[in-house]
Each structure stands twice: as C-alpha cells, then as structure tokens.
Amino acid sequence: MKAKSPDESAVEMREMVMPTDTNKHGTIFGGKIMSWIDIAAAMAAERHCNNPVVTAHISDIDFISPINVGFHVSIKASINYVGRSSMIVGVRVDSENPYTGEKKKTTKAYVTFVAIDESGKAKEVPRLTPITDDEKRRYENAKERALSKKNLSEKLKS
C-alpha cells in the first residue's frame, strides 16, 4: 500500500448559507456546519484510503464566529494522521461576505474515520507522509490528540 501525502486527498467544498440554514438571529445552525464538516472530512478520508469510511469520533469542534445568511462558506479538510485503520481529518471552515470580500475563520474540528471493507470490518489504510512544515506540525498534533484520547478512554474505564 503506497503512502500518501495530505495534499493528495485534501478536499475543499463551497456552500452558500440559505435562509433555511439559519436560526432566528440570521446565522447558520451549528448542526448545519457540523454536517458539512462531516461530509468534507469523509470525502478526504475516502480519497486517502480509496474505500468506504465511517465516522468514529468528532473532537475539538470550535465555533469561532457566526456565519450570516447569504455568506459563502469554504470547508477545507485534510488528513492529519493515520493509524492502522483510522484517519484523523482536520477541518477548517471560513466564511466570506460576497459583497465586501471579507473572510473569517469560523469553525475548526477534528474528525476520526475508520475505513471499512465489504463486510463492515475495519480495513488497513495507507500511511501518511507529511511533506511541508505545516503538514508535519498537524501530524504531530494529531498524533498527540490520538494518544491523549486513548489514554483518557483507558483511565475512564478503570
């Protein structure tokens, strides 16, 4: 199985916030953003492993600033770290006011996916080869995130 760089499977989606996507304040529902995050992250994970994937965990989702109705939204997802059958995907959401061009970072999240075979069992995924300094930093951070989650899970079981 050939290792891949994060760039080989990165995904960028674009959406526009419609009135049905918003709350009474005219800003997007958090659940709508979470749905877009899950979709973009799943596409990046599937591109990395060329297989079906399932969402296993969502962590550290931060809603940084609201997104208004009519604004354009960019959702960027890339593989940050891989285990044997799992992949941690980092997702960044930015908004853009289409009339002024002003852009803002609005949301970030980390989503873990597991590759599955035809019978729904976990399947091994290609290794990740981070190339740029930013990719290497994200790899190390995600590796620490995975270890921290594992340690916390073990501690809470006892």
SSE diagram, text form:
Layout: H1 6-9, E1 11-16, H2 30-49, E2 53-63, E3 72-82, E4 86-96, E5 103-115, H3 133-157
Antiparallel strand pairs: 1-3, 2-5, 3-4, 4-5
Précis, in short:
This protein is α+β, with helices and mostly antiparallel strands and 158 residues long. It is 31% helix and 33% strand.
Tally of helical runs? 3
Our Rg estimate from Cα atoms comes to: 17 Å
**Which architecture does the CATH hierarchy give at level 2?**
Roll
Number of domains: 1
CATH class equals Alpha Beta
> What is the terminal-to-terminal distance?
37 Å
Q: Could you tell me the number of beta strands?
A: 5
For this structure, the CATH topology is Thiol Ester Dehydrase, Chain A
General shape: globular
Fourth-tier CATH superfamily name: Hotdog Thioesterase
Q: How do the helices and strands follow one another from N- to C-terminus? A: HEHEEEEH
Give the oligomeric state. Answer: single chain
The residue fraction in helices comes out at 25-40%
User: Which strand order spans the largest sheet, edge to edge or round the barrel?
Assistant: 1-3-4-5-2
What portion of residues belong to β-strands?
25-35%
Residue ranges: pLDDT <50 for 5 or more in a row? none
The biggest sheet amounts to:
5 strands, antiparallel
Helical/strand content category: alpha+beta
